[in-house]
TrEMBL record:
PROSITE patterns: RETICULON (PS50845). This is Reticulon-like protein. Its main location: endoplasmic reticulum. It comes from Nicotiana tabacum. Residues 30-41 have a biased composition (Low complexity). The keyword Secreted does not apply. The chain crosses the membrane at residues 93-108, 114-133, 206-224. It is a multi-pass membrane protein. The gene is LOC107821893. Residues 1-25 have a biased composition (Basic and acidic residues).
């Protein structure tokens, strides 16, 4: 009886061990299946994200830049220090340049100060102050002012003169090509630009025109660079609308204008 009971205990223990092994195997298989399904879903997601382009790049590729521009605004302005000033890369220099131009315009246009008068008054004040300070330094027990020696360096002056000479020669060459009648498009552009300048010159003097150009160069490019996507999309819609209106005008007006026999023969 004792041996029979021991056999029963051993069989029950073996049965429990087999049941536990089956449970472990089922859990292991379910974990493997879950891992494979998650890895396949991750790979599918990676494929989808790789195949689908980003929204921002597709949006930027759809937007056509103003005047067919392909380069950034900073490169359009030359990419050097003038571009940094116009696009406010260094706010202190840009603000100082715009503030100086504003002060000059206020002095000469609003206050109606003359350049020679301003120069003479500035020299009078500077020389009188330095003269009095130099003579009074012995009485007030302070050191005399240090007046530096000012010399105009030769190299920057020569570089500026050479650059100016090259630009003038280039302008003369362009004017010669236009006068020779070789480029009709350039001729019309130059004539239109000169006519616009003549109209602006009749409305205001040279200093006011120069100040307007300075203000425009310090405001329009930086605003365009900041909102270029919105401005380009709006400009594209405006150009499309203009083309539609021109097509309507052509169909209703221009197409009804009688044409000469030479044009009819060419079309025929």
């Amino acid at each position: 009886m004792a041996e029979h009971e021991e056999r029963k205990v051993e069989k029950s223990e073996e049965h429990e061990e087999s049941v536990m092994e089956k449970i472990v195997e089922t859990l292991h298989l379910s974990n493997n299946n879950h891992h494979s399904s998650s890895s396949s879903s991750d790979s599918d997601d990676d494929k989808k994200t790789a195949s689908s382009p980003p929204v921002t790049s597709s949006f930027k590729s759809k937007v056509r830049r103003l005047f067919g521009r392909e380069r950034p605004v900073h490169k359009v302005f030359g990419g050097g220090k003038p571009a940094d000033v116009f696009l406010w890369r260094n706010k202190k220099i840009s603000a100082g340049f715009l503030g100086g131009a504003t002060a000059i315009w206020v002095l000469f246009e609003v206050v109606e100060y003359h350049f020679l008068t301003l120069l003479c008054h500035g020299l009078i004040v500077a020389l009188a102050g330095l003269f009095l300070w130099s003579n009074a330094s012995a009485f007030i027990h302070k050191s005399a002012p240090h007046i530096p020696e000012v010399h105009i360096p030769e190299k920057p002056v020569l570089e500026f003169a050479t650059g100016l000479r090259n630009e003038i020669n280039r302008a003369f060459a362009v004017l010669r090509e236009i006068a020779a009648g070789r480029d009709l498009k350039m001729f019309l552009m130059v004539i239109g630009g000169l006519w616009i300048l003549s109209v602006l010159g009749s409305c205001c003097d040279f200093l006011s025109l120069f100040y307007i150009i300075v203000v425009v160069l310090h405001t329009v490019p930086v605003l365009y660079e900041k909102y270029e996507d919105q401005i380009d999309s709006f400009a594209e819609k405006a150009f499309h609308e203009l083309k539609k209106q021109y097509a309507v005008f052509d169909a209703k007006v221009l197409s009804k204008i009688p044409r000469g026999p030479l044009r009819d023969k060419k079309k025929a």
